[in-house]
Design goal:
alpha+beta, 5-stranded mixed beta sheet
Length: 172
C-alpha cells in the first residue's frame, strides 16, 4: 500500500515458532504517511503483532494504537484523536488448497473471520497491514468530542405555490 513505510517479514522465520513484534515508525515516516491517510498529522503509531503458522500460511493478530491530528468537519478546529483497533489477517500461499476459489461466490458473514488473503511470494509487508487497519478506523467526518450539528430548517415555505400565494396577497 505504501512505499513510505515497509516492514518485510520472511515466512521462514515462523519455522522456529510464533513471533511477537512491536512496530513503531519514526517521526519522518509519520509525517509522510499523514497525507496518504487524509489527516493533518500522525503524532504516534505503534502496533503489537504476533505471527504464527495457520494451516499452510500465516495468521497475524494484534492491536494498533495511534494519535492523529484532524480538523473538525463542523467547527474547523484542529484536535487530536486517539485511534486504535485490532489487526486480524490470515494469509495462504498462492495455489494453496485453503485459498478461496475465485470462481465461487463467497457469502460474507460479518461475524465470521475474513477469508484468507493470497500471499505473493514468501515475504509479508507487516507495515502495510498496520496502515490498512489504521485507514479503516479513521473517521472520515471528524468532530470534536461532544460537538454536535444543530440544524433547524428554515420556517418559510418556499414551494412555488407558497410564493404565488404571497404574490397574490401582496398585490391585493
Amino acid at each position: 500500500m505504501s512505499e513510505v513505510w515497509t516492514h518485510p517479514f520472511k515466512m521462514g522465520a515462523l519455522s522456529r515458532g510464533p513471533v511477537t513484534l512491536r512496530l513503531e515508525p519514526e517521526a519522518a515516516i509519520l509525517k509522510a504517511l499523514a497525507p496518504q491517510l487524509g489527516v493533518r498529522a500522525i503524532k504516534s503509531l505503534s502496533a503489537d503483532l504476533r505471527l504464527r503458522t495457520w494451516l499452510d500460511g500465516v495468521e497475524i493478530g494484534g492491536r494498533f494504537q495511534a494519535v492523529i491530528e484532524q480538523e473538525s468537519g463542523l467547527s474547523l478546529e484542529v484536535f487530536d484523536q486517539a485511534v486504535e483497533g485490532p489487526i486480524e489477517v490470515r494469509l495462504v500461499p498462492a495455489g494453496s488448497p485453503n485459498a478461496p476459489d475465485p470462481e465461487v461466490e463467497i457469502e460474507l458473514d460479518p461475524e465470521s473471520p475474513d477469508p484468507p488473503e493470497i500471499l505473493d511470494g514468501d515475504t509479508i509487508d507487516l507495515a502495510a497491514y498496520v496502515i490498512e487497519h489504521l485507514a479503516v478506523e479513521i473517521d472520515p467526518f471528524p468532530r470534536l468530542p461532544g460537538e454536535t450539528f444543530d440544524y433547524t430548517p428554515p420556517q418559510d415555505d418556499d414551494s412555488p405555490f407558497a410564493v404565488l400565494k404571497r404574490l397574490k396577497d401582496d398585490n391585493g
